[in-house]
């Protein structure tokens, strides 16, 4: 969802070691707040065990050194009320076309008002369907525009 308006940072961590596993090319998004978090895609790389009684965390990786490189969109979508909106615009080129708060009406022809909000939240993201997305967005003035957003490799 939407939170307090603050500066966000996107950074690439080239290597990080957890137990005996060295993860490569981890993308982190963070702010200046005091709440640290880890992305859920991290847990897709192996088996995680939380031993609350002993206050221990165990991780068994599926591979010795997972490379988590990913192609990124130039913006991050988020939910506000029951609408999908533009959360953060990362690419300067896109910043000229979309703004934080713009409502996303469709993605590659899929009209979002026809998709129940629970389905948007619990199924594979519609933003992962393609490396190039055609978005229909409505800005704060009520103007509707089509914008193309392409994925680029994080590096």
Short description:
This protein has helices spanning 92-95, 117-122, and strands at residues 8-18, 21-31, 46-51, 56-61, 71-72, 75-80, 83-89, 103-107, 110-111, 132-138, 144-150, 152-153. The protein is mainly β. The strands form five sheets. The protein has a four-stranded antiparallel beta sheet with strand order 9-8-10-11, with no helix packed on it.
Strand order of the largest sheet: 9-8-10-11
Strand tally is 12
Gyration radius from CA atoms, angstroms: 18 Å
Helicity range: under 10%
Structural commentary:
The chain is mainly β and 155 residues long. It contains 2 helices and 12 strands. It has helices at 92-95, 117-122; strands at residues 8-18, 21-31, 46-51, 56-61, 71-72, 75-80, 83-89, 103-107, 110-111, 132-138, 144-150, 152-153. The strands form 5 sheets. The chain has a 4-stranded antiparallel β-sheet with strand order 9-8-10-11, with no helix packed on it.
Key words describing this protein structure:
mainly beta; two-stranded antiparallel ribbon; 155 residues; elongated; 12 strands; 6% helix
Q: What does the secondary structure layout of this molecule look like, with pairings?
A:
Layout: E1 8-18, E2 21-31, E3 46-51, E4 56-61, E5 71-72, E6 75-80, E7 83-89, H1 92-95, E8 103-107, E9 110-111, H2 117-122, E10 132-138, E11 144-150, E12 152-153
Antiparallel strand pairs: 1-2, 3-4, 5-12, 6-7, 8-9, 8-10, 10-11
């Amino acid at each position: 969802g939407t939170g307090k308006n603050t500066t966000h940072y996107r950074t690439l961590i080239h290597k990080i070691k957890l137990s005996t596993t060295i993860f490569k090319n981890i993308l982190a998004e963070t702010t200046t707040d005091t709440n640290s978090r880890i992305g859920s895609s991290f847990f897709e790389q192996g088996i995680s065990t939380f031993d609350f009684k002993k206050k221990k965390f165990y991780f068994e990786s599926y591979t010795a050194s997972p490379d988590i490189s990913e192609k990124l969109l130039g913006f991050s979508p988020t939910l506000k009320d029951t609408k999908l909106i533009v959360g953060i615009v990362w690419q300067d080129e896109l910043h000229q076309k979309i703004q934080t708060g713009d409502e996303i009406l469709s993605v590659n022809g899929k009209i979002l008002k026809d998709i129940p909000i629970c389905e948007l939240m619990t199924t594979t993201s519609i933003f992962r369907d393609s490396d190039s997305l055609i978005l229909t967005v409505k800005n704060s003035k009520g103007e509707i525009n089509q914008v193309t957003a392409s994925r680029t490799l994080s590096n």
